[in-house]
Amino acid sequence: MSAQRWNTGLKLAAAVAVAVTLSACGTATVVKSSGSRGGHSTPQTSVAKPGQTATVRKGDTLYALARIHNITPRDLAAWNGLSEPYTIYPGQQIRLYPGGSAAGTPGRAPTTVVTAPRPGTSTPAPTPAPVPTNTPIKNNISWRWPADGALVGRYVAADVTKQGIDIAGTSGQPVRATAPGVVVYSGAGLVGFGELIIIKHNEQWLSAYGHNRKRLVNEGQNVKAGEQIAEMGRTGTTRDMLHFEIRYNGKPVDPQQYLPAR
């Protein structure tokens, strides 16, 4: 697969953030434009909102959310550990305040932040736990392989173009849900991933299935573990295969740490 196609791994990360204000968790129609809702102008300084989050809706972009909540796009991305091009998914939870492991990015100092006064209690709000990079995160989901076939691409944490695994196969073979959940995205709006499906399993966990020949489920549909959701294809790539990702709080993890050995 080409480096150009995998540069869209960044876009998938920003689409999960539009799919993670998917629940309120991580990309909904993925929109790459920097337009805003309601005509808000770009803020020069950030007004943090301790303890508050925004849930990504279909059509949202990080830039639009930043304008709406009076936060600079740079700070909002840093507070949520997002790298350019700031891909977010519907249902993804976007934190509106700094803190935790995503409070900043190496080598990039946040801009001036003006903390808005908070009525009532002064007890600090809890921040999400950081995502471990070398050990599986405990969960009660019984993951299963989404397709049969040879593994032709592996997850590489440090490479934004390899944030999942690739499973080779033949055109039309079944692609199945890795676990029960609800379909939060079913479409072809994210360039480089072809016909894409995203399933939300709970408030923290998502799975994504790219390059399908045909999608068999619609947004809002509940699916069971092992249920066929698509037919394998090569939309957005040069060979018949499935690109598969698992994301925790919108951040990619190594699927092989969660899938059963085979």
Judging from the principal axes of the Cα atoms, what is the shape?
Answer: globular
What share of the residues lie within helices? 10-25%
N-to-C order of helices and strands: HHEEHHEEEEEEEEEEEE
* Cα radius of gyration in angstroms: 18 Å
Largest sheet: 10 strands, antiparallel
**Assembly type of the shown chains?**
single chain
Distance between the termini: 24 Å
* Helix count from the secondary structure assignment: 4
| Unreliable residue stretches | 1-7, 21-39, 101-122
Which class of secondary structure composition applies to the elements?
A: alpha+beta
Average pLDDT metric: 77
> Which percent range describes the beta-strand content?
15-25%
Number of E strands: 14
Describe the structure concisely.
This protein is 11% helix and 24% strand. It is an alpha+beta fold and 262 residues long.
How would you portray this structure in words?
This protein is of the alpha+beta class and 262 residues long. 11% of the residues lie in helices and 24% in strands. The chain is built from 4 helices and 14 strands. Strands 5, 6, 7, 8, 9, 10, 11, 12, 13 and 14 form a 10-stranded antiparallel beta sheet that branches. It has a two-stranded parallel ribbon with strand order 1-4. The longest helix is centred in the first third of the chain and has 12 residues. It is globular, with a radius of gyration of 18 Å.
